[in-house]
Amino acid sequence: MAVALCGLGAATACGGTQGADAQGAAAESPAGSRADAHTPATSPAAAELEQAERAEVAKKPLAGKVVVLDPGHNGANYKHPKIINRLVDVHTQKKACDTTGTSTNDGYSEAAFNWDVANRAAKALRAAGATVKLTRPSNDGVGPCITERAAIGNKVKADAAVSIHADGAGASAHGFHVIMPKKINGPVDPVVADSRRLGIDIRDAIRAGTNLPYSTYIGRQGLDFRSDLGGLNLSTVPKVFVECGNMRNPSDAAKFKDPKFRQRLGVALAKGIEKYLG
Ligand code: ZN
User: Fold this and answer.
1) Domains recognised in the chain with CATH numbers
2) Are 245 and 166 in contact (CB under 8 A)?
3) How far apart are CA 121 and CA 3, in angstroms?
4) 243 counts as catalytic
5) Residues at Cβ < 5 Å from ligand 1 ion
6) Which of 28, 50, 53, 243 is catalytic?
7) What pTM did the predictor assign?
8) How far is ligand 1, taken at its centre, from the CA of residue 226, in Å?
9) pLDDT along the chain (278 residues), means of 10
């Protein structure tokens, strides 16, 4: 092909010799001038490409995802028995609108624990790009009812919803478990399978991120299925409950009272949700 390009009078520049010379010249030229010759970093097209690549890297993993976190109970529920004891329909039965929740033996309330962990998880999820909505604005109010807690996730069409709780069981019981919905011929049926995936991802992330043992008193391998929880039965979006442990167990309670542990737990919960949404 090179021969075809060589015309009369250009004979000395034709053939292999010219190519060899050009290579030699390029090899001897300073690095800067070689870069200029190729100009990948300075041409507008290259700069645009580089910017697009940077934007791709910066794009957050949960951008566009909506997560509802439901910190169980509320700090002032105990002051409003009439409100929280009102019976509501959770499809499989009638239940109290809400309950006070439990506490550690020395008075750290489950409502405060749930609120704290939810906010730590929310922060981690927002940092990953998610839109996060909590079902209550503070820990000094009452409610909302369990029916409303489910409705909040449904209304925003959450990609995932998680209720955060801790148990009040016998003192020797300990460890965490995740509760997933069962089919009930009701609102939750279409999302039972996705909720199971969400539950397993959260179970795995909490185990890996906190080293909490699986529950010794409920479920199998940290997983349980129930049809009596309004927050699950009425959910039309993938949803699980996390029972982080037993507040009446000295070992679990000591962990729950430690802000560093709650941070690990919140981050682990967020990671489980992120895995599911990925
Ligand atoms: Zn609870």
Assistant:
1) 2-59 (no CATH), 66-277 (3.40.630.40)
2) yes
3) 70
4) yes
5) 72, 101, 165
6) 243
7) 0.80
8) 14
9) 42 41 41 46 77 70 97 98 97 98 98 98 98 98 98 98 98 98 98 98 98 97 98 98 98 98 98 97
